[in-house]
Design brief:
The protein has 418 residues and is of the alpha/beta class. Helix content is 39%, strand content 18%. The chain has 15 helices and twelve strands. Helix 1 packs across helix 10 and helix 12 crosses helix 15. The protein is globular, with a radius of gyration of 22 Å.
């Protein structure tokens, strides 16, 4: 089967499926497991992929284990020994706070002969919520809401979250000592920084109150007297802890490499433009439209048929009251910028299966999208102004719906140039 016998939609979704398969945790623990301990094996963790990670770990481990994982509502799965609880994302709730307290107690209860396995993935920042002394859950919920609307990149958001947490920024690792700790990560952040994934609960990092306060002001996040006092008081030295191991088992680049291989199998030249694309989704779309147009007109940076692949984590500064996340925001802006140019189609999805807080992973379009919208009386620019990409693509039956994938390596984008 080659690209000549497949529709644009089939090609785009085949590339996305290949990327998703490469991001799953199954088989990723092989040859990365520590020696069984004299004492207990305690498994703790958080994130949208953490339940599936727990199941995959159990299958590979083959020894007794116990523990607790917190994941997003609807992202749980069956495990034999490890308890799975579900909580709210992206704004934390009481269930997440209760789970975080229990996880911290498990960590504190580990002895020198015990092994603590930590399974972390994107979403842990909200799911593993424990306010620093002086803050309430309501304070953290309000802060998370402000962060999500600010348009700040994930690295900035997680720096702020660490500074106001009793468990993130290496504080969980400190509670685990003197037990041995092994952390397994699925990266959802540009650059795959272990300290940014889930705000680094097991990755020690020295506090920087002045830096955090500066970031909050730069992104228009209100710094109340209360928040400033907590940030200045909630400091940790960031010293590395002995005996720790950290393993990265899935990354955005792994997903893009798998899509690259699938494209070659279909006879399409792949070009990976980057796995760490950040910035406003609608502005990134203008850049990618320029690259796609150059490809179609001049065969640069690759000759057609080709596919431009990219990942990372764009952001949306919320100005309207519409529905949708950064994937449909990017795709709608891209469709507008391409002006219905023949021979160019695209897909943009979040690999966790949830774009923002909706039921879709993302959406796709081909060159007929603007003509079809006009026939329905839909004005794409109005939908974009209202941050309403979901409604636009839903009306044209162009949503991509996968349900929760139980993994998370963030944005996946493919632009096909015939």
């Amino acid at each position: 089967m080659t690209s000549a016998t497949l529709s644009d939609r089939d090609i785009l979704l085949a590339l996305f499926d290949a990327g998703l398969a490469a991001a799953l945790p199954e088989g990723k623990f092989k040859d990365r497991l520590p020696a069984p301990p004299k004492g207990r094996t305690i498994v703790i963790g958080a994130g949208k992929a953490s339940a599936r990670m727990a199941r995959a770990f159990e299958e590979e481990w083959g020894h007794p284990c116990e523990g607790l994982i917190v994941t997003r509502y609807g992202h749980g799965c069956e495990t034999r020994h490890i308890e799975i609880v579900e909580a709210s994302h992206p704004v934390p709730d009481q269930a997440g706070l209760d789970a975080a307290r229990r996880i911290l107690e498990l960590a504190k209860g580990a002895g020198p002969d015990d092994l603590v396995v930590c399974l972390m993935s994107g979403g842990a920042s909200s799911l593993l919520t424990m306010p620093a002394e002086g803050l309430t859950l309501a304070d953290k919920q309000a802060l998370n809401g402000a962060l999500l609307k600010s348009g700040a990149p994930i690295g900035v958001m997680n720096q702020v979250r660490k500074s106001l947490s009793a468990i993130k920024g290496g504080r969980l690792a400190a509670a685990i000592a003197p037990a041995r700790a092994v952390t397994y990560l699925i990266s959802d952040v540009p650059g795959d920084d272990p300290g940014t994934i889930g705000s680094g609960p097991t990755i020690p990092e020295a506090s920087d109150p002045e830096g955090v306060l500066g970031l909050m002001r730069a992104w228009g996040i209100e710094v109340t007297d209360k928040l400033e006092q907590v940030i200045r008081a909630n400091t940790v030295p960031g010293d590395a802890l002995p005996g720790q191991e950290v393993h990265m088992i899935a990354t955005p680049l792994m997903a893009l490499k798998a899509a690259e291989a699938k494209a070659r199998e279909l006879g399409i030249t792949p070009l990976i433009l980057g796995d760490a694309i950040e910035g406003e989704a609608r502005e990134a779309a203008i850049v990618f439209a320029g690259i796609a147009n150059c490809t179609a007109s001049h065969g640069l940076p690759a000759a057609a048929p080709c596919v431009l692949l990219s990942g990372g984590e764009t952001t949306v500064t919320v100005r309207g009251k519409g529905r949708g996340g950064r994937s449909v925001e990017f795709l709608l802006a891209l469709a507008i910028a391409l002006k219905g140019r023949a021979g160019i189609s695209a897909v943009s999805c979040d690999t966790d299966g949830v774009d923002g807080t909706e039921d879709n992973a993302g959406a796709w379009f081909d060159a007929a999208i603007l003509e079809q919208a006009a026939a329905r009386g839909l004005k794409p620019a109005d939908f974009l102004a209202n941050n309403d990409g979901y409604s636009f693509f839903s009306a044209l039956d162009r949503l991509v719906i996968t349900g929760p994938t139980l993994t998370n390596v963030n944005d996946f984008r493919a632009i096909l140039v015939r």
